[in-house]
Write a structure and sequence with these properties.
Length: 260
């Protein structure tokens, strides 16, 4: 069964086509890595799945249901970590924020308090529990954002650059959480520019470029030598695939800043 199915998704911002007839499906129980250069359309895709953006055309189905028709039910079963932490209520204290999120998801009081204790302890931000999020460092804000999307134990987790701003200890913890969630049968969509993490963590990888999926493969096939069915070229690493598949202005003469 597919947890996510996207058909012909197009999103324009004025003249710019951010998503161009994008097609993507993700099987239940896998960790799927979506990679691509800056501006390729990763966050736009995620914002469309979150229904924060209205797509021009196309269909998004989550848990087999059309997003537009079952939005509330879908959102209850999903957790989305956005690329930046702007969606945090910065004038709440850390624990107030998590309590509010728990109540929105309809969790009972005891469950909320137990999970808040666990999350502050796990992410080692206990000392900032009673402080306004406004005063948190970048990484601490990311930790609260992560805690907020894990609190209701979602079935489908979307993480847009989750490692950005986190220290090494926390990166290791987040990787462990992802593996734990997968072992429990949950489905994860993750974006990152750190290809080694994507190679280690994921079951499947998709490359997006200029709003289209231009490559998709099980990750294990990347570790062995694989052949791109379309171009018949063979590759040995995700980086090599990325550089070959995403062909753009980077081709040709190496650019230089002559004044430096
Ligand atoms: N709100 C917006 N208004 C106008 N253009 C936008 C908006 N959001 C995204 N875009 C444009 O859409 C394109 C895709 O952006 P998007 O943020 O999805 O890229 P991305 O793959 O997430 O990149 P990055 O790796 O830098 O996070 C870019 O050209 C971007 O400038
Ligand atoms: Mg992005």
């Amino acid at each position: 069964m597919n947890i996510l199915e996207i058909e012909s998704l197009t999103k324009t911002f004025g003249e710019l086509k951010a998503l161009d007839d994008l097609k993507l499906s993700i099987h239940a129980g896998v960790i799927f890595g979506l990679i691509g250069p800056n501006g390729a359309g990763k966050s736009t895709t995620i914002n469309c799945i979150a229904d924060l953006l209205d797509n021009d055309s196309g269909v998004i189905k989550v848990f087999g249901k059309e997003l537009k028709e079952a939005e509330i039910e879908i959102k209850k079963r999903m957790g989305i970590l956005f690329e930046n932490t702007d969606d945090l209520f910065i004038y709440l204290k850390g624990e107030e924020h998590l309590r509010f999120v728990g109540e929105v998801y309809g969790l009972d009081k005891n469950t909320i308090e137990k999970r808040i204790d666990d999350l502050f302890d796990y992410f080692e931000i206990e000392s900032h529990r009673q402080m306004l999020i406004e005063s948190y460092s970048k990484g601490m804000k990311k930790k609260i954002a992560l805690a907020s999307i894990l609190l209701h134990d979602p079935e489908f987790i979307i993480l847009d650059e989750p490692f950005d701003g986190l220290d090494v200890f926390t990166i290791i913890k987040v990787k462990k959480i992802l593996q734990q969630l997968k072992a429990k049968g949950k489905t994860i969509l993750i974006t990152s520019h750190i290809l080694s993490y994507i190679e280690d963590l994921t079951d499947e990888v998709g490359i997006i470029d200029k709003g289209k999926i231009v490559f998709q493969s099980p990750t294990k096939d990347i570790r062995s030598k694989i052949k791109n069915e379309i171009t018949q070229e063979t590759y040995q690493s995700l980086e090599e695939i990325f550089l070959n598949v995403v062909k753009d202005s980077k081709e040709g003469e190496e650019k230089k800043l002559s004044w430096l």
